[in-house]
Amino acid sequence: MSHDDILDQNSTPVKGAASKVSFSEAFRFWLKLGFISFGGPAGQIAIMHRELIERRRWLTEERFFHALNYCMMLPGPEAQQLATYIGWLMHNIKGGLAAGGLFVLPSVFILLGLSYVYAAYGHVPAIVGILSGLKPVVVAVVAEAVLKIGGRALRRRAHLAIAALAFVAIYFYSVPFPLIVLGAALIGLAGSRRWPEVFSAAPPKLAGSKATVIQDDAPPPAHTRPSFSRTLRIAALGFLLWIIPFAIVTTWRGWSSLHAQEYRFFTTAALVTFGGAYAVLAYVTQAIVGSFGWLTRTQAIDGLALAETTPGPLIMVLQFVGFMAAWNHPEGMSPLASGFLGAALTTYATFLPSFLFIFLGAPYIEALRGNRNLNGALSGITAAVVGVILNLALVFGSAVIWPHGFWARPDWFSLALTAISFAALARFKLDILWVVAAAGIIGLLRTLTLR
From CA 404, how far away is CA 443, in angstroms rounded? Predict the structure, then answer.
């Protein structure tokens, strides 16, 4: 096949590893993703897999899973970090900033508005209605992810066994996600060294004759090659980007002010909380409700519900926490101004480390892409992720479709909308943006009609 045949639905011809997807085209996609990335990390990873691998063919599944597995080992929001990694891979640091930033930006403003409405006016029925329509779509997206990602990642019985063990561990025994990742990595590493013919299996190539924009066997782009001097520059810049806002807020508001405490606390949370948004929320809730007394437990739970109504990473719930803590304790400012400042500081402290983890570590992860030991460990993580996604599909599906338990009557509205959404995505290949929009409108109209 000639390089003129290597096309995705929107891009220009490419040759080798140099991406010819223009930055403006990629920017438009990342902006779209920021508005449709519902469903928590599993749903968001499923959306990226569907859009980037199956529809646009910007990179191979092997490259996708290689990046995903690295992000799974990091603290912070893995789906946002995956978007940052892929954006960086295609267009260097500006691509990573665009992908990771746009993944978050729509939810920043949406959740900020919802936080104000919640703080000032209480619960809004319209939000409840939209959420009732969006949740079944999330169930459908995650179910599709289990089938598609599992079908391609579990090519050996050993990987199927790892996925099964991961599912049992998290579903029946509530084993923390970081321990599951660590255990899967160790099993994959040991297995690939001891029984390489059983464990070593890269994800298969996509069916069909078209190649991908970024090819695995082509020379890597120059910006993906490790450079110690560049690593030092990025680390120094990252430190400055953290210390300058901290110096400003402590000078303006004081070292012991709530806003300075928020900046320090949420920086710590971003660095130590492995396991996704739910693990972060458990850690944060214990501190903000118990140690600091910034929020009530009910407010923390309501924040999670609001975060689930918005696109973007579920860890955005921390922005709500930062807003409400500052709203409840304005310390001489108006509640609204204090809340906005608290939300801005919380969001900045939460996501700055995520960008740094990618820009510092991704070149070295790319350089090790052909390493047998690393690939063995990462293939174990890939298999475990399938088990974790299956767990999420069952937990979330049961909560949405059987809210009162499996032995009770199902929510027929949610069941029907889940089935329709799954058919629209899996069978008819409809754009998820339209499925999400339609489901939200249906849920809103249903709620307004029943009132």
Answer: 20
